[in-house]
Amino acid sequence: MGLRVLVADPIDQASVKMLKEAGFEVEYRPDISAAELEKTVKGCSVLVVRGRTKVTAKVIESGLPSLKVVGRAGVGLDNVDVEAAARHGVKVLNTPEAPTNSVAELVIGLMLAVSRKIAWCDRVMRAGKWPKHEAMGVELAGKTLGVIGYGRIGRAVAKIAHAMGMRILAYDVIQIPAELLEEADAKLTSLEEVLKNSDVITLHVPLTPETRHFINSEKLALLKPSAILVNASRGEVVDEEALYKALSTGRLAGAGLDVFEREPPTGSKLLELDNVVATPHIGAQTYEAQEAAGRMLAAKIIEAIKP
Q: What domains does the chain contain, in order, with CATH numbers?
């Protein structure tokens, strides 16, 4: 009998096939509940998840001593207790490379949807109206895009925006090599300069204790009233109360949000605003990104632990 792999969230079937062909015994339970997970993980060597399943310290401890690897098909690890895994010698793998294009294209889509009032026009036209004169928008060409977090996704967004005629300002807590900045003719500068001088701000930072409510009322006050904020990173990076106040009072022109502090954002006042375009955390929701994430993770698992 091969080493057992429990797949607790939906992943591409090609990656399941890769694991089986490598000699693993795969149990595919994409809708497993938290209570069932704690029981089912016993005896497994590998636990595979996406964003839905919470890999708590209790889940990890339930899998001991057999559990050797937790694999997250995706970028963030905020649903995995990484400290508990390290404490028990469980390796944590993820695939930050997989959704780069998918998320970058969504960010550009949100920028366009807000700047040209696309979603609002769609809603109003479905109600039988013809809002041509009220639908005056702004062009992105010639505007400045501020990229906060100049990693893989931030750079991919910058390259597309640069090709559209936008100027790029970048901020990161680490030094970015000159050759990566040159790809989009980006200028690496201070956070204050990015906030003050950008027409569109896009966030690409991980969720940590330091970045929770990173965009707060003080930072929003630095933005141009005509600016657009786009967040496809993690919802808690933005203080939603402060953002609502800025958007509802005209302090900020608009926002494109793929992520929220609470998901789903039931009852969120942000969803009442016409200058907000919202999507349900679909940054990595493309066939290409999901296939890439599954295949990359399967390859990393096979490399890390041999059946």
A: 4-95+287-304 (3.40.50.720), 100-278 (3.40.50.720)
